[in-house]
Design brief:
The radius of gyration is 23 Å and the shape is elongated. It has eleven helices and ten strands. A five-stranded parallel beta sheet has the order 3-2-4-1-5, with helices on both faces. By secondary structure, it is α/β, with parallel strands linked by helices. The longest helix is centred in the first third of the chain and has 13 residues. α6 links the parallel β6 and β7.
Length: about 280
């Protein structure tokens, strides 16, 4: 790699409380030639708070493919650039991947500047198992897509996490309640590190009721954490969760296909699942 190239710094910024910004993050934003930000107005408030006077340009989901090419050229010219999102660690459901990918392929140094991340912050206080876990990004926008999204994770044995917006959180939980058992444990973390931070651990039924009945629980930014399914594959009895999965698959597929998919997911013998599928339709072997 040419030593004349600049460096690309991927800088995590606070998710709410400005005091959570690292000393190193502040120094990097002061030193670089340019800051690429998801929302220039938003990042300028952070810069003002820390007395940083630096050039900022926009790099968001609508322009990042084209903007990344220009930024790569600046890196090749020896300029160093800091990439930031509106809050938290860039690329985690935020713009920036095209630029990082291009920089790596062009042998430009990409340097992480760690810091706040809503995902990790919520997991650390969730009280649910966190090793392993899966992060699913934002849930789909439509009800039908969300139900499919939840159905695919119905029997997932590990903790899984997704982000949700204020205007969809209630609908998202309602869709989840149509797919997952109502006693499944979930955590709703909203407005993390901010004045109205709220972290609720409850059954899906209780969490849904709280969000439905409390206007404040539908405001802000959300991390939703869902506990894994408790499944014993050696148990020959079809559990309520297995039944729910098969019922969902039968609505979308033929009996043969639904049974084959359920067997692949659960490890239960096809014969047992097939008999259960027929019983659901009132048919006997």
């Amino acid at each position: 790699m040419s030593t004349d190239y600049g460096k690309l710094y991927v800088v995590a910024t606070p998710i709410g409380n400005l005091a959570d910004f690292s000393f190193r993050g502040v120094e990097i934003l002061k030193q670089v030639d340019l800051i690429a930000a998801e929302d220039t107005r938003h990042v300028k408030m952070l810069l003002q708070h820390y007395g940083i006077n630096n050039r900022v340009i926009a790099l968001h989901q609508h322009n990042e493919d084209n903007a990344a090419k220009g930024l790569l050229q600046k890196l090749h010219e020896g300029q160093s650039i800091a990439l930031v999102s509106d809050a938290g660690t860039p690329l985690l459901s935020d713009p920036g991947l095209p630029l990082v990918k291009m920089a790596k392929e062009a042998h430009v140094d990409v340097v992480p500047i760690p810091g706040a991340c809503a995902l990790i912050t919520a997991l650390s206080v969730s009280g649910l198992p966190v090793i392993p876990f899966s992060f699913e990004g934002f849930s789909p926008r439509t009800s039908s897509a969300r139900k499919s999204f939840f159905s695919e994770r119905l029997l997932c044995p590990t903790t899984w996490v997704f982000y949700e917006s204020s205007h969809r959180v209630l609908a998202s939980l309602q869709d989840m309640a149509e797919v997952l058992p109502l006693d499944r444990q979930i955590v709703i973390a909203r407005e993390l590190t901010k004045l109205h931070e709220t972290i609720v651990k409850a059954s899906l039924a209780d969490a849904l009721a709280r969000v439905a009945n409390d206007d404040n629980m539908r405001k802000g930014e959300f991390v939703v954490i869902v506990s894994g399914a408790e499944i014993d594959k050696s148990d020959p009895v079809i559990s309520p969760e297995h039944q729910r999965l098969l019922e969902i698959l039968l609505k979308e597929c033929s009996t043969k296909t639904a049974v084959a998919m359920a067997a692949e997911i659960t490890g239960i013998r096809k014969k047992l699942l097939y008999q259960f599928a027929l019983d659901l339709n009132g048919v006997q072997l």
